[in-house]
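Entry for fe (iii) ion complex. Fields follow.
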Amino acid sequence: MTVEVSMFSCLSDNYGFLLHDVSSGFTAAIDTPEVTAINKALSNKGWKLTHIFNTHHHFDHAGGNAELKEQWGCEVVGAAKDASRIPGLDKGVHDQEKFSFGGQEIEVFSVPGHTSGHIAYYLADASILFVGDTIFSLGCGRLFEGTASQMWSSLQKLMKLPDETVIYCAHEYTEANADFAITIEPDNDALQKRIEKVRGLRSELRPTVPTTLGLEKSTNPFLRAEENSIQRRLGMLGGEPESVFAKIRQMKDSF
Ligand code: ZN
Ligand code: FE
C-alpha cells in the first residue's frame, strides 16, 4: 500500500482524516476539526504531521490550523481564493491544479456551493476523494455561500470521476439524510438496501463513511436530479437538472 488513510470521529459529528504517504512518510490532516483528536490519531499511528489540506474555512474544518502549525511546523494547503480566511495558509491552490505529496499526485477541484472557496482533493492512483462538506453520504452540503446552480456544477464535476472512487465526507449525517432521501425516491431498491445497512451500522455506532461515488450515484437524491422518477415525483419532468437539484436542496432545508 502506497497510501493509507486513518479516519476518526471528533467534535459532535465530524470525521477527521490523516492521509499518510508510505514512501515519503508525509502525513496530512484533511482539515483540522479538533487538535486533540488529530494528535491522538497521529500518535496511534506513529506518524508526524507534515501537511494540512483544508477543504474550506469553516471552524470545524480549519479551527485547529494555527495550533497544529505551531506544534508541528506543517505546511498548510488550501484554496488560494480563501487565503484571507484559512489560518496559516502557506500554499494556495487553484481548480485542477496538481501537486505532489511524497509519492502521490493530488488534484484539486474547485467545488463552490457550501462555501465560495470550497475545494476537494483527489488522488487518482489510490481512487480517493476528500470532499469536505460538498457531498455527504446520501446528502450534500448546505448552500451557505453559493447558488444551487454552482453546487450542481460542482457535483457534476465530481460525478465524472470513476464510480469506484472512495469518498471521504466530513460529517456523519447519513441516517438523517436517509430519512429525507426515501421521501424523494421511495421506490429506489438500491436506496432501500443502503438505508437498511446504514441503520444497522448506526445502531452499533459504526461509521457509514467512506462511501463510493457509484453507491452515491445510485442512491443520493442530490446526485440524481436527472432521473425521470425523481423529476416526475417533484412534478418537474423534463426540467433542467439544476432546477430539480435546487428544489431537492430546498425541500431538505425545510425537512
Ligand atoms: Zn462546512
Ligand atoms: Fe463541516
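NOTE: The pocket of fe (iii) ion (ligand 2) is lined by residues 58, 60-61, 133, 170-171 (CB under 6 Å).
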